[in-house]
């Protein structure tokens, strides 16, 4: 079944069985992130029905996302700027720590806040037209959508520093080499690849997906002794679920697929 919700249409939500496709829908402005777009993103991720097991995040048109809507900065005070960032943090946290894993399908510009957004997704697929940049330095501003944390965790703060200072723009393959994309496809094929990956993710045990999304980032920030304890607790909870028992038995009884290339 497929249903579409198009509230004001800055972000669309399509439900196709156990898959949700959430699409930035402002191609005339290159999907620039105004506060209304950010609010609609948050609402879309929050409203996913329990039947959904995986989501794809995409951008309509030739560019995934041109980052912050710069027209919103003209009149902003310092206090409003902080509130603004916190609205982004809240929305992006619904992506990273939301109900289901998120695969991001990208093309064209993935810049500034667009890269901050993509880095909140769990799996990133770029087509060959994709390029990554952090033009905040050129615009006289700074990261404000969580990129200092999320993008730095992906590629290291030294590369973030270099990209911001020099305006260095990376193509899709260069982005893949440093973790900004996990897959690169030919032009126009990112969504198809994202769908293929989403189907695989949806076939996992939901409790394993929950642990992968929520425990791994936490463990990465814990000291080793705490991390190992968190891992052991998560391992024991997932493996004692009836679904895990059935999946393991299915393999032992040769009813489940083998790992293959
Ligand atoms: C915008 C924005 C935007 C396009 N805010 N309106 N982001 C940037 O510095 C990137 C700025 N954008 C660009 O460099 C280019 O637009 C693109 C490379 C993304 C695309 O180029 P192109 O030739 O396909 O489109 P365009 O003609 O530049 O833009 C089409 C329209 O979108 C145009 O408006 P129009 O009314 O003249 O048609 C542009 O003004 C508009 N547009 N990008 C507002 N970003 C939480 S902190 C995050 C900090 C940041 O994100 S800094 C990075 C901001």
Measured between the Cα atoms of the first and last residue, the distance is: 32 Å
Order of helices and strands: EEEHEHEEHEEHHHEHEHHHH
Low-confidence stretches: none
Oligomer: single chain
* Fraction in beta strands: 15-25%
Give an overview of the whole structure:
This protein is of the alpha/beta class. It has two domains: 2-202, 2-enoyl-CoA Hydratase, Chain A, domain 1; 206-252, Orthogonal Bundle (Lyase 2-enoyl-coa Hydratase, Chain  A, domain 2), CATH 1.10.12.10. It is built from eleven helices and ten strands. The chain has a seven-stranded mixed β-sheet, sandwiched between helices. The longest helix has 19 residues, at 78-96. The protein is globular and about 65 Å long. The two termini are 32 Å apart. The model has no long low-confidence stretch (mean pLDDT 95). Bound molecules: 3-methylmercaptopropionate-CoA (MMPA-CoA).
Tags for this model:
about 260 residues, alpha/beta, 2-enoyl-CoA Hydratase, Chain A, domain 1, seven-stranded mixed beta sheet, three-stranded mixed beta sheet, about 45% helix, binds 3-methylmercaptopropionate-CoA (MMPA-CoA)
């Amino acid at each position: 079944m497929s249903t579409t919700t198009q509230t004001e249409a800055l972000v669309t939500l399509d439900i196709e069985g156990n898959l949700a496709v959430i699409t930035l829908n402002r191609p005339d402005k290159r999907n620039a992130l105004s506060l209304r777009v950010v609010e609609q993103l948050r609402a879309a991720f929050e409203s996913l029905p329990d039947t959904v097991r995986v989501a794809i995040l995409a951008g309509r048109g030739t560019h995934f996302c041109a980052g912050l809507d710069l027209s919103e900065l003209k009149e902003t005070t310092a206090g409003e700027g902080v509130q603004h960032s916190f609205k982004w943090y809240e929305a992006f946290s619904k992506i990273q720590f939301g109900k289901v894993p998120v695969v991001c399908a990208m093309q064209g510009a993935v810049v500034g806040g667009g890269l901050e957004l993509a880095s909140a997704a769990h799996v990133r697929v770029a087509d060959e037209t994709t390029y990554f940049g952090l033009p905040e330095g050129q615009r006289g501003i700074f990261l404000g959508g969580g990129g200092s944390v999320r993008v730095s965790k992906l590629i290291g703060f030294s590369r973030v520093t270099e990209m911001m200072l020099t305006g260095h723009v990376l193509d899709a393959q260069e982005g893949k080499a440093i973790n900004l994309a996990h897959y690169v496809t030919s032009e126009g094929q990112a969504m198809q690849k994202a769908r293929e990956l989403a189907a695989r993710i949806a076939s996992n045990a939901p409790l394993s997906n929950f642990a992968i999304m929520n425990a791994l980032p936490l463990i990465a920030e814990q000291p080793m002794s705490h991390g190992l304890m968190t891992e052991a607790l998560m391992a024991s909870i997932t493996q004692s679920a009836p679904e895990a028992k059935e999946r393991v038995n299915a393999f032992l009884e040769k009813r489940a697929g083998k790992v293959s290339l």
